[in-house]
Amino acid sequence: MNYLRKLVGQKCYLSPLNSSQSEKVAKWSNDMEVAIRTGDISDMITNEIQRGYLENMNNSSGYAFYIIREEDNEVVGIGRLMRVNFINRNAIMGMFIGEKNNRNNGIGTEATKLLLDFGFNILNLRNIMIETYSFNEPAIKVLKKCGFKEIGRRRKSIIYGNNEYDEVLMDMLNEEFQDSIIDKVLNVKRGD
């Protein structure tokens, strides 16, 4: 399938999300390793329900993209900016890489930077926040690598089995963002 190339990196690119991959995304949504990290583990997601979710993700308060592996145009994840508030210039970011073999190879880091670039340099947002869980150490590592800072924790707010975990809140301001693809296209240097 040919996908539109909205923002392009070296390992992946972002393409506007549609419902064409609803079966693949439903599979991910029911995969315990993915769903436990997104907080959707208790949701009952069928192919039809997933199709409806995907059809409504790009709306007046959000932007959603497929994360597509550059080498073979394979959809490997989803990235979103949600609850976009143009008055206060902020949004909530969410993303995941669905297939295990596409993790730990730099695609998640690059996709995060592409989403931030879109938010800060296309939508002109000032602050982008993300929520994750204390047990999701790989995500926290990627977010810190991209420049996110921890701004707080909601303690023991997630319970899986006999274990309690913190919800970790992280954010980034536009002036903290580095590695802009858009700046490179415009030949702009930060700080000039």
TrEMBL record:
InterPro entries: Acyl_CoA_acyltransferase, GNAT_dom. Residues 12-175 form the N-acetyltransferase domain. PROSITE patterns: GNAT. It holds the Pfam family Acetyltransf_3. PANTHER family: GNAT-FAMILY ACETYLTRANSFERASE, SPERMIDINE N(1)-ACETYLTRANSFERASE. This is GNAT family N-acetyltransferase. It comes from Clostridium rhizosphaerae. The lineage of its organism: Bacteria, Bacillati, Bacillota, Clostridia, Eubacteriales.
